[in-house]
Amino acid sequence: MGTYLTAAWSIPVGVALLLLLGAFRARATMKAVARRRRLGSPPFVPPEQLVIVQIPTIGRHDVMPALRRVVASFETFMPERFARWRVDIVSEEGCEAVKTLESMASDHVRILYVPADYVTPGGTERKARANHWINEVRLAQGEAGDDVWVLHMDDDTGIAGDTAREFARFILENPAGKRSSLHLAQGVLTYPREFSANVFVWLADSVRPSCDLSMFCMTTGSGSPLIGAHGELLLVRASVEARIGWDFGRLLSITEDANFALTFASRYPRKSGSQRGATAALRNRLAIWSPNASDGHADSFMWRATGGSHGPVAHCLRMPLHPGRLGRFSTSSSYWALRLLSG
């Protein structure tokens, strides 16, 4: 019994060490970013590169005010840094807010609807189904090349000037054809206090940027997103996303971002980075926990946070091992096992 308890209590040590090392790494990097801002010239991505902002939405009336603010933020800040860019808003065919969505269409904003009868080969559901459908659309339209980037966002997450600036810098530093170029970058979300009506909800949300500036900094920032990725503020080269896809099956649909990141880590080792501190998004939680949100929505959120971790655990066990990645694999497996046991 004593041996068992000792082993059980020792499991979180690797994760705690990861948090500590990541925090030191983030602090050093943010100082370098601040110095680069003062000395460097503002980046601007030429027309040879296309940036597509992908925003899936359930298309309810109660989320439209937040979505309008999100779209407005891109129309305000993207032209300063990108010659070619577009926002793709993806919703379900027959959603209740079709007229409102159509009113947002412009030269830089496209509204798309996932056909009601669309089924992926693996039977994927929810947001992953929409992601896989729009991925197929880009392939068919010739927009899945190495010179195309997809910025995944949510319908409650807007950007500011620093977001556009740092992602533009990342794209310029990682051109297609360069052997050392990275293919994926994860930004950092912030939760301004004034956007939350409840201090306890705000404190709970603060776990997210804390992880971004510690655990994710040490994994995604060092090239291997072995503890997953966030499905928003996620920049991916379109050709890489096209090869991976989002069809992970019905049971893994709820943790689509984690499964995408783990697949990426196994196929493209040391090819990810993170935009720490300098890249921040503003999030309005009222768009998620709205008065009209159903109990099923809350239940699915809790399943994602706890029981949904069984998918990434299984994914870790299927990943091919390499001696140089054994330490990171062990930490990743421990992290997802703890997530599963916490449910």
Walk me through this protein's architecture.
This protein is an alpha/beta fold and 343 residues long. It has one domain: Spore Coat Polysaccharide Biosynthesis Protein SpsA, Chain A (Alpha-Beta Complex). The protein contains 14 helices and ten strands. It has helices at residues 2-10, 12-39, 64-77, 98-103, 126-140, 161-173, 199-205, 207-212, 215-219, 238-244, 256-267, 295-305, 310-318, 326-342; strands at residues 50-56, 85-92, 109-114, 148-152, 157-159, 184-186, 188-190, 234-237, 272-274, 280-283. Strand 1 (50-56), helix 3 (64-77) and strand 2 form a beta-alpha-beta unit. The protein is globular, with a radius of gyration of 20 Å. The protein starts with a helix and ends with a helix.
How is this fold's topology laid out?
Layout: H1 2-10, H2 12-39, E1 50-56, H3 64-77, E2 85-92, H4 98-103, E3 109-114, H5 126-140, E4 148-152, E5 157-159, H6 161-173, E6 184-186, E7 188-190, H7 199-205, H8 207-212, H9 215-219, E8 234-237, H10 238-244, H11 256-267, E9 272-274, E10 280-283, H12 295-305, H13 310-318, H14 326-342
Parallel strand pairs: 1-2, 1-4, 2-3, 6-9, 7-10
Antiparallel strand pairs: 4-8, 5-10, 6-8
Helix pairs in contact: 2-14, 11-13, 13-14
